[in-house]
């Protein structure tokens, strides 16, 4: 069926033409050929070994080697970041074989792991000796006093026990064996060490409970945090000394120290030994620190030498891994001398692919070049659009809902205009639009710098949609001029108003209203005198509500018209006559008619009640309209439109499944039965079985599917039109919020004539404008515009069940991290 009219070809309107091609590559040049194709990045290979596991494939060992090398490279990158170094700009590239690189990476990993292990041991020893030195320094200040006090207390307790044996006042420190055999008295012992400051209170409490108070505990905080030997983290700690009596008490205290992670250190009782030990520990700390510095210097020297080539090595290994992974998707031919592969290729790129294959054969000195041939396939090709940095974000908006089917009309072309425009209808304020425009221009100006940096999730999303924001800001400025709002303040930008106040002071403008003194309206947009008048809200409500309905009907009509172009392109006359035609008639006879009435009311200045007209068009189509008549013969036109809408429903529902059933029966009856040779019988049976699989038809399924589609469209025509009223609701909410912030915050603070109150009011107004209007309202309007495109617009013509063209390309390799 020839289309009534056609639309010009555009690279973004329909996906690129794709061919399924077959490559027969000699084994000796397979690696080089795939490498050239990876540099080109225009072939999407099909996996011909789906029946094999990854470990059963031909190049599984090579893939394993590359994975192991990637692990070693990741370790080198980690060590580089840990040392505070960055990958230096590499000198001219040095060719290195993959086998040589594997050996070199193994040697580097072993060397660095040995250096790192020794360095960790040295740092742990250094931390332990540093803590030991602090214990020797801090504990000596109170050790003698504590020990003398404990010894005198023990002596007094021994004397008192002789005079008051068995008394209730006998201290618990005197155990049963001391009372029965004085020769077995236990000497006073002590434990010194460090504990984290956060655990000190609990540690002390548990010690007293475990020993029933029979201990002497002292602690002293350190001046600065120390490195914990176990974790290597700076921690605030306390030096503690705990005096105890008895072996049981020592065992309990030791277990409690281990439970709390307290580090215990030996502490000599004699002053001379303490001084000598302190000197030895300090000397050893100095020696270990020198060894640590030398080890760090050696490690940094190794890493600095590696840093010049690390990026080159990483790229090489990633490419080799991708090449072998792609080779595993190819299958051997019968002779085992060639690899056979299938791939999707854009038709426009066939010349480039063939040129790359010739260069690969030449470089590999292969006697046989790669065979490149186009295959015929019934499989649905992938969808491929040539996008740039401007159109990419709009295409991603569409792809987030669903990738377009191959050769289906791409909504992304229309989204470039309609999405920012519908956003601007809800966000109409040219002051706010200028703020977003300035922020977006800053992102566009710095796109080269930001494009090479790792941004956060929110910033990365904002930067990726910078051109969407740019058009949203420009359209917001345009609709802001139409609404005549600059932070909710109107301006006389395009001339004088057509209305004026009844009194010179305009004191009754908000109560009595305005009077019209000339016939010419305000040149562009809303007359500024409507703002602040008594009629402002009713007038703007009526204007924006009717405008929302008209915009919604236009966009839905566009969606139905696009379904016609899809049907003609795919040569589906059934969809044209029994989907496009009844849908355009149904929507046009009801909501298209309503849009025409709105425009007529605006043009003629009629006072007709459109609610009454549309309601009684259904309830009483033959009754007289009376004062609500907008044109002559309106009653007859409404009856005709109502009949058309009633006829359109069965028109959508019944013919298509019946015609599909008739076509299916004709195919079955038209199939001829001839005399078959015995040699052809089996092959033909297989072909007929294969055809039956593709020609299977169930009338009930087709009818139910069409019934669901019809009900969805009829009900959706009402709900989708009502859904566009969100344009009016959000536009009104944005304007009212802006007016509240301006009048109740900024003007109110200005009325106090106090600079401090004015400053506070301006700060509150600034943060409210940025936080609520420029961030939250922008996000809200964005999401509502997104919904209108995904649901109300795209469901009229868009299938969105395709799959993305994902070519094998080195440029799309993921970061090694």
Task: Briefly say what this structure is.
By secondary structure, the protein is α+β, with helices and mostly antiparallel strands.
Structural key phrases:
alpha+beta; 5-stranded antiparallel sheet; 4-stranded antiparallel sheet
Helix tally equals 23
Give the helix proportion (percent range). 55-70%
Overall pLDDT level: 86
E-strand count: 13
Rounded to the nearest angstrom, the radius of gyration is 42 Å
Low-confidence region ranges:
1-5, 163-180, 673-694
Distance linking N and C termini: 55 Å
Shape: extended
Judged by helices, strands and strand pairing, the structural class is alpha+beta
Q: Mind describing the biggest β-sheet?
A: 5 strands, antiparallel
Strand content: 5-15%
Structural features, described:
- The strands form 4 sheets. Strands 1, 2, 9, 10 and 11 form a 5-stranded antiparallel beta sheet that branches. Strands 4-7-3-8 form a 4-stranded antiparallel beta sheet, sandwiched between helices. Strands 5-6 form a two-stranded antiparallel sheet.
- It starts with 17 loop residues before the first strand and ends in a 24-residue tail after the last helix.
- By secondary structure, the protein is an alpha+beta fold.
- Helices cover 60% and strands 8% of the residues.
- The longest helix is centred in the first third of the chain and has 66 residues, at 98-163.
- Mean pLDDT is 86; it is low at 1-5, 163-180 and 673-694.
- It contains 23 helices and 13 strands.
- The chain is extended.
């Amino acid at each position: 069926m020839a289309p009534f009219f056609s639309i010009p070809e555009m690279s973004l309107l329909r996906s690129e033409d794709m061919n399924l091609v077959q490559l027969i590559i000699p084994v000796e040049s397979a690696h080089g050929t795939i490498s050239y194709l990876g540099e080109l990045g225009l072939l999407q290979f099909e996996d011909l070994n789906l029946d094999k596991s990854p470990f059963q494939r031909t190049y599984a060992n090579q893939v394993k080697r590359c994975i192991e090398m990637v692990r070693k490279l990741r370790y080198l990158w980690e060590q580089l970041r840990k040392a505070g170094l960055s990958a230096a700009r590499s000198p001219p590239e040095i060719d290195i074989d993959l086998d040589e690189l594997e050996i070199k990476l193994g040697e580097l990993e072993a060397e660095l792991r040995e250096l790192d292990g020794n360095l960790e041991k040295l740092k742990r020893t250094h931390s332990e000796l540093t803590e030991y030195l602090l214990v020797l320094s801090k504990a000596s200040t109170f050790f003698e006093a504590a020990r003398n006090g404990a010894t005198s207390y023990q002596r007094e307790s021994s004397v008192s026990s002789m005079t008051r044996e068995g008394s209730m006042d006998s201290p618990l420190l005197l155990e049963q064996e001391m009372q029965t055999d004085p020769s077995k008295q236990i000497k006073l012992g002590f434990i010194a060490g460090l504990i984290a400051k956060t655990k000190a209170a609990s540690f002390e409490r548990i010690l007293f409970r475990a020993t029933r108070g029979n201990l002497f505990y002292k602690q002293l905080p350190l001046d600065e945090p120390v490195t914990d030997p176990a974790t290597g983290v700076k921690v605030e700690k306390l030096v503690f000394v705990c005096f105890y009596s008895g072996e049981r008490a020592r065992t309990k205290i030791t277990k409690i120290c281990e439970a709390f992670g307290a580090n215990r250190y030996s502490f000599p009782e004699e002053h001379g030994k303490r001084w000598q030990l302190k000197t030895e520990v300090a000397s050893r700390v100095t020696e270990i620190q020198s060894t640590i510095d030398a080890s760090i210097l050696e490690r940094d020297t190794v890493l600095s030498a590696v840093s010049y080539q690390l990026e080159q090595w990483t790229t090489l290994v990633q490419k080799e891994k991708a090449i072998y992974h792609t080779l595993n998707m190819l299958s051997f031919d019968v002779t085992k001398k060639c690899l056979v592969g299938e791939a999707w290729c854009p038709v426009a790129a066939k010349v480039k692919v063939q040129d790359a294959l010739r260069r690969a054969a030449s470089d590999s000195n292969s006697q046989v070049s790669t065979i490149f041939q186009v295959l015929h396939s019934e499989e649905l090709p992938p969808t491929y659009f040539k996008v740039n940095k401007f159109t990419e974000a709009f295409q991603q908006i569409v792809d987030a809902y669903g990738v377009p089917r191959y050769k289906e009309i791409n909504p992304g072309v229309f989204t470039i205009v309609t999405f920012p425009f519908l956003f601007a209808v809800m966000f109409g304020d040219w002051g706010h639009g200028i703020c977003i425009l300035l922020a977006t221009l800053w992102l566009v100006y710095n796109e080269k710098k930001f494009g090479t940096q790792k941004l956060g999730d929110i910033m990365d999303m904002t930067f990726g949609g910078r051109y969407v924001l740019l058009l949203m800001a420009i359209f917001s400025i345009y609709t802001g001029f139409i609404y005549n709002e600059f932070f909710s303040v109107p301006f006389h930008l395009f001339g004088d108003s057509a209305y004026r106040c009844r009194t010179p002071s305009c004191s009754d403008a908000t109560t009595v209203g305005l009077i019209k003194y000339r016939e010419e309206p305000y040149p562009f947009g809303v007359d500024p005198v409507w703002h602040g008048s008594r009629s402002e809200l009713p007038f703007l409500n009526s204007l924006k509500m009717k405008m929302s309905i008209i915009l919604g009907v236009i966009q839905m009509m566009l969606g139905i018209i696009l379904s016609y172009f899809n049907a003609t392109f795919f040569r589906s006359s059934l969809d044209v006559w029994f989907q496009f035609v009844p849908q355009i008639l149904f929507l046009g006879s009801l909501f298209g008619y309503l849009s025409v009435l709105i425009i007529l009311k605006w043009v003629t200045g009629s006072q007709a009640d459109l609610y009454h007209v549309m309601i009684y068009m259904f309830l009483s189509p033959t009754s007289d309209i009376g004062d609500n008549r907008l044109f002559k013969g309106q009653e007859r036109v409404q009856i005709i439109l109502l009949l058309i809408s009633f006829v359109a429903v069965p028109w959508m529902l019944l013919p298509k499944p019946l015609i599909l059933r008739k076509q299916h029966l004709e195919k079955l009856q038209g199939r001829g039965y001839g005399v078959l040779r015995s040699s052809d019988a089996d092959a033909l049976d297989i072909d007929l079985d294969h055809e039956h699989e593709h020609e299977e038809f169930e009338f009930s399924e087709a009818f139910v599917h069409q019934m669901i589609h019809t009900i969805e469209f009829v009900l959706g025509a009402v709900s989708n039109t009502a859904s566009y009223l969100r344009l009016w609701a959000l536009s009104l909410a944005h304007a009212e919020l802006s007016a509240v912030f301006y009048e109740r915050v900024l003007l109110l603070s200005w009325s106090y004539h106090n600079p401090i109150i004015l400053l506070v009011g301006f700060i509150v107004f600034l943060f409210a404008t940025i936080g609520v209007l420029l961030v939250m309202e922008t996000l809200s309007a964005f999401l509502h515009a997104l919904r209108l495109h995904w649901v109300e617009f795209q469901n009229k013509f868009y299938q969105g069940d395709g799959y993305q063209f994902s070519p094998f390309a080195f440029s799309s390799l993921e970061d090694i991290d």
